[in-house]
Amino acid sequence: MLWAVCGLCAAAQVVPSGTGDVQRVLWARLDAPLNSGALKVGDTVRARMERSWSSPHCMIFGGSIVQGTVDLLRPRAEGAKVTAVTLHFTVPCVEGRPVTATLIALLYPKKSTSKGQIDTYMDMPMGIGPGASGRKSTDTGVLPSPSFGKGGPEPEPQIKIGQVTGVRHVTLHVPTQAGVDSVLTTPDKRLELQAGTRLAFRVDIGKP
């Protein structure tokens, strides 16, 4: 059943770690801005998957919610040199069980560059000069189709564990041992992330 729908899955992304291991990457985007000044322990942070993800033991559809819980919140004002936020993320397999999604990279928000047929049509220049009648048709059957390279969606970037790109003053600390959550830190008084920030996860099958 899992591989019958694998046409929906994101292309495999390899993530080099310190030991040379590779994993499939699950990508999601923050549903809303994150501001540590407005958070308390136990609060929920949500991200949404744009593509499906699969392994031999778990299938997760695009659009699924990756739900984070604030496990630890340490403001810089308490005497620490940095503001720290620890988040525990889970995501549900189609099979009905939640699995842990460990945050391994953070990238700046980026709008999708893919366009539908109507968007492509509206971007076409209108006629110029005497007798020009502009766009000729709105029949999507004769409009140019959006291009996705070799017939699939644009691949997500390859990343390194702990990478933070385009998000100022934020550092991501990814644990090397199992059962420990990643920690986001900043030297600022508040840790802030924009809505749409891209989150890369390692899915830990067998861990709720």
Word description of this protein:
The protein contains one helix and 13 strands. Mean pLDDT is 76; it is low at 1-22 and 113-150. The chain is mainly β and 208 residues long. The strands form three sheets. Strands 1-3-6-7-8-13 form a six-stranded antiparallel beta barrel. Helix content is 3%, strand content 33%.
Task: Supply database-style keywords.
single chain, disordered N terminus, six-stranded antiparallel β-barrel, 1 helix, 208 residues, mainly beta, two-stranded antiparallel ribbon
The gist of it:
By secondary structure, the protein is an all-beta fold.
For the secondary structure, the number of strands is 13
In percent, how much strand structure appears in the residues?
25-35%
| Low-confidence runs | 1-22, 113-150
Strand numbers in spatial order across the main sheet: 1-3-6-7-8-13
Rg, Å, rounded: 21 Å
